[in-house]
């Protein structure tokens, strides 16, 4: 096994990043656990079974639960099924959950751990780039409801996060690239060196090279520094939500046909357009967003499918505008956006006018 990198989140837990680090998972299950739920993405069944064997060899009692794929896992029905399973199996407060999969799996697994007996330990084992750099780190857990994305959830920091880069070998390229949107986000909000490194798309997407682990580690470091200072998003943590106001609306309105990372890419261009039109950001930095994202193969425009139908286009905008009103940064009727004044300098834009919201949207509609 090549050297693993370990990033500590505050005084709380480690994020282990490297090839072959999956074997560390059993030793990271907190002492005192007897029963361990492995909630996993369907594609991770073989990995989950092998992990279960390792846990059994250590005297633990694993239970496997294959979740529905992707966003279909993040529902109250799936959470309720797992609560029943934990109840049937007699999981106590010293028992633990392992979430093994992409961000949807770690969000759901984390939420079940947060809510079972008001909180049992969770070891997060992300298997997508997005899960490694973002979803599994920082303790935001949650599910979707018909009214919106991530509207129910809890802050529940993990006991450990294990990012085994070997698992990325089977990840479809489109999902790998979507995960890089959150890496680019970290470049724009906190570590501009990421943007320089990510300008080489071949290196950035090579699972066996040195660049992807470097990008993953840098993005985790940005997130670790932020959540260590402001776990519950009283203020600073909002910067991790850069691009997410429109992104979550796009995901919701498309019925989750859009990948989260792809939507975040468009959402960042939208936030940059807003800031530029509000006189807070140089237009050249808006173009820098488009270039950084397009270089990696990420979308920078939203195709609203209205094909010249003005009424359909207006209805789509209204649906997105309603969904943006449910963003967690909104206060009362006031929309609040994370925007930049320059690369690496995030701030907030509060209560932009409807005209500004719409003009910036028109600038990102493909
Ligand atoms: N809690 C947070 O802080 C946070 C941060 C960012 C994103 N998120 C959430 O994360 C979710 C997006 O995560 P995602 O992009 O990982 O999507 P995902 O979990 O839906 O996974 C994408 C696809 O990849 C498949 N997959 C996962 N790992 C694989 C592997 N190693 N090989 C082959 N296929 C694999 C999955 O089965 C799925 O079909 C969204 O729900 C988003 O809201 C949460
Ligand atoms: O960790 C955070 O804080 C983030 O905002 C990270 C985001 O990338 C992530 O998508 C998060 O789930 C969004 O949270 P929400 O509070 O807007 O639902
Ligand atoms: Zn995100």
Automatic annotation (TrEMBL):
Molecular functions (GO terms): 3-dehydroquinate synthase activity; metal ion binding; nucleotide binding
Principal place of residence: cytoplasm
SUPFAM superfamilies assigned: Dehydroquinate synthase-like
Entry superkingdom: Bacteria
One cellular-component annotation, GO: cytoplasm
Substrates-to-products reaction catalysed: 7-phospho-2-dehydro-3-deoxy-D-arabino-heptonate = 3-dehydroquinate + phosphate
Localization annotation: Cytoplasm
Enzyme Commission designation: 4.2.3.4
Residue ranges of domain 3-dehydroquinate synthase C-terminal in the record: 179-329
Pfam families: DHQ_synthase (PF01761), DHQS_C (PF24621)
All copies of domain 3-dehydroquinate synthase N-terminal, residue ranges: 66-176
Alphabetical UniProt keywords: Amino-acid biosynthesis, Aromatic amino acid biosynthesis, Cobalt, Cytoplasm, Lyase, Metal-binding, NAD, Nucleotide-binding, Zinc
Recorded metabolic or biological pathway in which this protein acts: Metabolic intermediate biosynthesis; chorismate biosynthesis; chorismate from D-erythrose 4-phosphate and phosphoenolpyruvate: step 2/7
Residues that bind NAD(+): 69-74, 103-107, 127-128, 140, 149
InterPro entries documented for this protein: Dehydroquinate_synthase (IPR050071), DHQ_synth_AroB (IPR016037), DHQ_synth_fam (IPR030963), DHQS/DOIS_N (IPR030960), DHQS_C (IPR056179)
Requisite cofactors: Zn(2+); Co(2+); NAD(+)
Family listed: Belongs to the sugar phosphate cyclases superfamily. Dehydroquinate synthase family.
Function description: Catalyzes the conversion of 3-deoxy-D-arabino-heptulosonate 7-phosphate (DAHP) to dehydroquinate (DHQ).
Protein name, as recorded: 3-dehydroquinate synthase
Organism lineage: Bacteria, Bacillati, Actinomycetota, Actinomycetes, Micrococcales
């Amino acid at each position: 096994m090549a050297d693993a990198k370990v990033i500590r989140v505050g005084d709380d837990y480690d994020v282990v990043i490297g090839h072959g680090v999956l074997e560390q998972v059993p030793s990271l299950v907190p002492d005192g656990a007897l029963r361990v739920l492995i909630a996993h993405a369907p594609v991770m069944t073989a990995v989950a079974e092998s992990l279960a064997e390792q846990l059994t060899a250590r005297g633990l009692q694993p239970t496997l639960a294959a979740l529905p794929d992707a966003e279909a896992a993040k529902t109250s029905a799936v959470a309720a099924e797992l609560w029943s399973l934990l109840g049937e199996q007699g999981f106590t407060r010293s028992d633990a959950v392992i979430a093994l999969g992409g961000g949807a799996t770690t969000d759901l697994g984390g939420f079940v751990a947060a809510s079972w007996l008001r909180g049992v330990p969770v070891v997060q084992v992300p298997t997508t780039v997005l899960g490694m750099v973002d979803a599994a780190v920082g303790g935001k857990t949650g599910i979707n409801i018909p009214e919106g994305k991530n509207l129910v959830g809890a802050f529940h920091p993990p006991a450990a996060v294990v990012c085994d880069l070997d698992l990325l070998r089977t990840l479809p390229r489109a999902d790998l690239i979507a995960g890089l949107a959150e890496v680019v986000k970290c470049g724009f909000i906190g570590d501009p060196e990421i943007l320089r490194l990510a300008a080489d798309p071949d290196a950035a997407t090579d699972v066996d090279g040195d660049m992807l682990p470097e990008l993953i580690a840098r993005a985790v470091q940005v997130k670790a520094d932020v959540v260590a200072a402001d776990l519950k998003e009283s203020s600073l943590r909002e910067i991790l939500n850069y691009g997410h106001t429109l992104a979550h609306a796009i995901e919701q309105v498309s019925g989750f046909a859009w990948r989260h990372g792809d939507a975040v890419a468009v959402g960042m261009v939208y936030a940059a357009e807003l800031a530029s039109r509000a006189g807070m950001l140089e237009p050249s930095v808006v173009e820098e967003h488009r270039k950084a994202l397009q270089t990696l193969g990420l979308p920078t425009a939203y195709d609203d499918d209205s094909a010249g139908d003005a009424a359909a286009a207006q209805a789509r905008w209204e649906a997105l505008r309603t969904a943006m009103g449910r963003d967690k940064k909104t206060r009362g009727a006031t929309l609040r956006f994370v925007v930049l004044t320059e690369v690496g300098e995030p701030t907030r834009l509060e209560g932009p006018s409807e005209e500004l919201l719409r003009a910036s949207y028109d600038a990102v509609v493909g």
